[in-house]
Amino acid sequence: ARIAADPNDVIKSIDALRKDRQKTKELEEIKKRADALLKENKRLKEELKTAEGRTKGKIQEEYVQGIRGLNATEWLERGFSLHKSGDYNEAIEAYSRAIELDPKNAAAYHGRGIAYAELGNYQQAIRDFDRAIELDPKLAVAYYNRGIAYGNLGNYQQAIREYDKAIGLDPKDALAYHNRGFAYYTLGNYQ
After folding, report:
1. Which pTM does this prediction carry?
2. Residue 142 has pLDDT above 70, yes or no
3. Which one-letter DSSP state was computed for residue 3?
4. How confident is the model at residue 7 (pLDDT cuts 50, 70, 90)?
5. CA 34 to CA 40: how far, in whole Å?
6. What are the C-alpha distances in Å from 88 to residues 13, 31, 59, 67, 107?
């Protein structure tokens, strides 16, 4: 018996699996970050109890920054949850709130970029992926998703460059190889 499948359906299925894998990795990173922030906030809270004068003001500011970071993490988690349920506009709002509270949060830009891409706003998605990469140049998944966005805009040459970067950072990422191959195929490059 021979099995036949529509290549577009296969691509969609693989992308769906990849997104679930990406979300798991991102949530693990967020949890690590939240745990670190909680530990740091506990330390700062203890220091605040014994600090005096200028030192107390400095420690208090660090504590407030840490609390903002936690709130940003909570908004980021909310964005992931909304995104997973398919509520992309609300997810964008949650990611934006996380970014407002923690402008150096690469995961929030990346998540918002994916949500914009889901809505077909590939230019905005690319801008968010750009910012995520600027903040975390080793975030392979951001290059991968930027490649998808460029591919959806018909810019397969740029998509290939993005997949190359993703593969360079994560050589075990089979989907990046797959999508790069599909981009070459679309360009008629069968070598």
Report:
1. 0.67
2. yes
3. -
4. low
5. 10
6. 19, 22, 38, 26, 16
Number of Cβ within a 10 Å radius of residue 6:
8
One-letter identity of residue 72: A
CA distance 109 to 181: 27
Cα R_g (the chain), whole angstroms: 20
Q: Are 118 and 144 in contact (CB under 8 A)?
A: no
Asked if residue 80 lies in contact with residue 29, where contact means CB atoms within 8 angstroms, the answer is: no
CA dist 47 and 171 (Å) reads 44
- What is the predicted pLDDT for the residue at 23? 64
Is the Cβ–Cβ distance between 92 and 111 less than 8 Å?
A: no
Average pLDDT, the chain: 84
Per residue in 30-52, pLDDT tens?
Answer: 667 666 765 776 676 677 677 66
Could you tell me the end-to-end alpha-carbon distance of the chain, in angstroms, rounded to an integer?
29
Spell 56-90 as b/e; 16+ CB within 10 A means b: eeebeebbeebeebbbbbbbbbbbbebbeeeebeb
